[in-house]
Amino acid sequence: IRDLERVQGNFQTTYGAIERTVEVLEKEASVKEKPGAIELKPMSREIRYKNVYFKYEDQWVLKDFNLAAKKGELIALVGPSGSGKTTVVNLLPRFYDVSQGQIAIDGIDIKGATLKSLRSQIGIVTQETFLFNDTVENNIKYGSPEKSLEEIVSAAKAANAHEFILGLPQGYQTVIGERGVRLSGGERQRIAIARALLKNQPILLLDEATSSLDTEAEREVQKALDYLMKNRTTIAIAHRLSTIRNADRILVISNGEITEEGTHDQLIARSGLYRKLYEMQFLLDETPGLREVCAEAVEKKSE
Predict the structure, then answer these.
(1) CA dist., res. 74 & res. 226, Å (int)
(2) Dist CA 125 CA 76 (whole Å)
(3) CB within 8 A of 35, min separation 6: which ones?
């Protein structure tokens, strides 16, 4: 009788889980391909945001946003939290669609292209890496199952990850746990960079890829990112402004609009928002203990 009671309890739990799973599976995607969508060829000239507006529920997140990124350029997005930086990045692979305006690759509106051909040429490295409870090898070749072990090792070396992988108990066959729990933050990021290198897409999106790392880990990951960005068109959201000093252009975004644009030296000379952000971050980095004091003050205020 006790066993039957446990079975009944397990059944109810499982039934609830199945209901939620089915609800997700049956949910229609908000972004759909147009009938007759074309195969988008690999980018050869530019990415262009033209008079882009984006509305989330009743709030405008982007307003009249314009950007032209030439092939091989590094464009950095800077601004306060909630200014619309991540939205700019998420619109390119069509995680959302623009409310007004157009995003085009080589003059072709991305809404008229197949999702597969669009997303197959975009590599993404975010602050939170998506790793699976599988081997290092399988995590690196996720999305590129046809790649050989030799190609995987080559990508890992370029991502500055090969040495620490060899130090793992089973090397490339080591199971790293759910979300890579058995690895440090810097190691997880380098696995994600190796994955992007292996896929070898012409467009790269970086969303604060080093913001959650300590100084030493950031240095190792930045080396890998510098290699990854070579010969790729990159749009990078910058948390630590020191990492984007060499960007071809820096766009300062505030309340969904571009308020400043230029190189690092040009923006420093203007004494605007960028300079204020840079000086504030420099002060935090150069003053021992100040970052921790500020974080504690913010935590107390939120409580």
Answers:
(1) 11
(2) 14
(3) none
